[in-house]
């Protein structure tokens, strides 16, 4: 099946023939749906904190920050912003010079409210000798969009979201999402020495642009917030790309005969996360940021999630040390079972049958895992995954973030569970990735490989099958201890289309 050239390609990419064969087998077998116990809700698997809990968690987190721990803010930022401008690309190729659709009218009618307006105005003057207003008065709206998206203009159509001009401030400065994440880091993740560690995953072609932006702004934010930034970057590893398949599930080859590999999706970033030297890691999408006037809730609830995490971790660590010492009483073991079931939401349907060393082994296995606390917002119809209680391969039930593709929508009961879910996953995670001995967990060990996804793509006009790895916050963290906590909608402000920047949450 594979030639000597193929084998050389595998070696270059850092994968083995066995791994490639395993991926091809996934195309043939597909991926099973997960078995659900139910959608998580405030009364069933989601913690709802009151004011006292907010204060206690903030206190726990602030105390933790004063100890010798390394905190990292991890921001996936490699995706291009092209989908954000899908409607405007259609306008460019649509054959009409003036707005027609509702989307186009909203964009042009409110164009002066975008953070990038001044830069775009300057670019129009440079390219066409006229400002935006003059071009629009002449019906040359496509020239305005071309200046925004095309390489000879601002090139926003090819840049990643992290480098776009998002938020205009009263002093007329404009911030990118990257900068807003730097500010967030200073507000809730600076350590006892006022160090702020922020890690961005970026694409190779944009790495130097990210570095240049950081170099141009870092001094300003260090002075403003009295901190010292440690900003690092990584790229998705070639070894996490997956082989493409044809309709018969054989390796897909390009016109020159070479094998085709494709990026494995955001689940590939579990390798980048695994490379971090950190005790606690905040994970949040690049586009979910707000201006300073709205950051209070973000900071408050980040501290809530982090405070809950370190409190639960401390208790789990205490139990693990006691289990190592041995001679735990039945009452102590039952206390650990209760903690596992009612605080970490991991339940064994036949826990009463586990006795003695069998129970001790079970408790050690379940307590000694990476841990994450995940913010969940009330469901307002956004596309994406949500919080569920799902069965694991060992028969236990635990909290899991699932996408619709993992649920059997042909089963009316499962479909109703999904559609009736009260909460949505905004990708708001705080993770603990070291064990009770201070050693790093090997995170790929905790990936559920059966939770991948197969999609249909094309290359050169030919159809192919693409394999996505288990999602970073889905199957890649399947075997973690997971706790869901309700957070307000004010903490969830993604920018999926350019017109989302016109929402009040992104205005000055």
The Cα radius of gyration reads 25 Å
Number of helical stretches of at least 4 residues: 15
Under the CATH scheme, the architecture of the largest domain is Alpha-Beta Complex
Mean model confidence by pLDDT: 95
Gap between N and C termini: 59 Å
Range of strand content: 15-25%
State the share of residues found in helices, binned by percent.
25-40%
- Structural domain count: 2
The 3D shape can be described as globular
Q: Which CATH first-tier class of the largest domain would you pick?
A: Alpha Beta
CATH topology of the largest domain: Spore Coat Polysaccharide Biosynthesis Protein SpsA, Chain A
Secondary structure category: alpha/beta
Contiguous runs where pLDDT drops below 50 for at least 5 residues = none
Number of strands: 18
* CATH homology group of the largest domain: Spore Coat Polysaccharide Biosynthesis Protein SpsA, Chain A
Largest sheet: 9 strands, mixed
Structure description:
- Strands 2, 3, 6, 7, 10, 11, 14, 15 and 18 form a nine-stranded mixed beta sheet that branches.
- Helices cover 35% and strands 17% of the residues.
- It folds into two domains: 31-81 and 165-252 and 260-506, Spore Coat Polysaccharide Biosynthesis Protein SpsA, Chain A; 82-158, no CATH class.
- The chain contains 15 helices and 18 strands.
- A hairpin with a 2-residue loop joins strand 16 and strand 17 (462-468).
- It starts with a helix and ends in a 22-residue tail after the last strand.
- It is α/β, with parallel strands linked by helices and 508 residues long.
């Amino acid at each position: 099946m594979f030639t000597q050239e193929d084998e050389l390609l595998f070696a270059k990419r850092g994968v083995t023939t066995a791994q490639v064969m395993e991926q091809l087998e996934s195309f043939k077998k597909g991926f099973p749906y997960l078995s659900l116990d139910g959608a998580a809700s405030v009364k069933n698997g989601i913690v709802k904190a009151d004011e006292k809990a907010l204060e206690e968690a903030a206190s726990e987190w602030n105390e933790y920050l004063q100890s010798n721990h390394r905190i990292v803010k991890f921001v996936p930022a490699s995706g291009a912003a092209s989908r954000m401008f899908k409607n405007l690309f259609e306008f460019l190729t649509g054959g009409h010079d003036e707005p027609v659709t509702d989307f186009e009218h909203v964009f042009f009618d409110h164009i002066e409210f975008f953070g990038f307006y001044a830069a775009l105005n300057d670019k129009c003057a440079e390219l066409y000798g006229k400002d935006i207003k003059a071009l629009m008065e002449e019906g040359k709206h496509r020239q305005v969009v071309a200046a925004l998206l095309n390489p000879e203009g601002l090139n926003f159509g090819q840049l990643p979201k992290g480098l776009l001009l998002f938020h205009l401030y009263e002093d007329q400065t404009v911030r990118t999402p990257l900068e807003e994440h730097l500010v967030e880091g200073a507000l809730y993740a600076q350590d006892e020495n006022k160090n702020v560690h922020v890690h961005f995953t970026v694409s190779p072609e944009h790495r130097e642009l990210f570095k240049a932006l950081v170099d141009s702004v870092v001094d300003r934010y260090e002075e403003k917030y009295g901190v010292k930034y440690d900003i690092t970057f990584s790229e998705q590893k070639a070894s996490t790309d997956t082989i493409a398949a044809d309709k018969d599930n054989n390796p897909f080859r390009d016109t020159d005969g070479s094998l085709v590999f494709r990026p494995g999706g955001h689940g590939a970033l579990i390798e980048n996360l695994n490379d971090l030297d950190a005790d606690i890691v905040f994970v949040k999408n690049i586009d979910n940021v707000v201006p300073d006037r709205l950051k209070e809730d973000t900071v408050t609830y980040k501290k809530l999630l982090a405070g809950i995490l370190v409190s639960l971790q401390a208790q789990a660590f205490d139990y693990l040390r006691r289990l190592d010492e041995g001679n735990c009483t039945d009452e102590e073991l039952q206390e650990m079972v209760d903690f596992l079931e009612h605080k970490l939401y991991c339940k064994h349907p036949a826990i009463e049958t586990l006795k003695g060393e069998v129970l001790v082994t079970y408790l050690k296995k379940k307590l000694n895992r990476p841990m994450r606390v995940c913010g969940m917002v009330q469901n307002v119809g956004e596309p994406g995954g949500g919080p569920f209680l799902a069965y694991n391969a060992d028969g236990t039930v635990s909290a899991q973030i699932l996408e619709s593709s993992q649920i059997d929508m042909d089963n009316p009961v499962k479909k109703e569970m999904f559609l009736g879910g009260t909460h949505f996953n905004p990708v708001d995670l705080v993770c603990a990735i070291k064990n009770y001995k201070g050693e790093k967990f090997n995170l790929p060990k905790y990936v559920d490989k059966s939770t991948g996804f197969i999609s249909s793509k094309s290359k050169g006009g030919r159809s192919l099958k693409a394999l996505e790895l288990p999602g970073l916050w889905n199957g890649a963290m399947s075997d973690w201890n997971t706790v869901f906590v309700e957070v307000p909608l004010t903490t969830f402000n993604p920018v999926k289309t350019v017109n989302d920047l016109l929402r009040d949450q992104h205005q000055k």
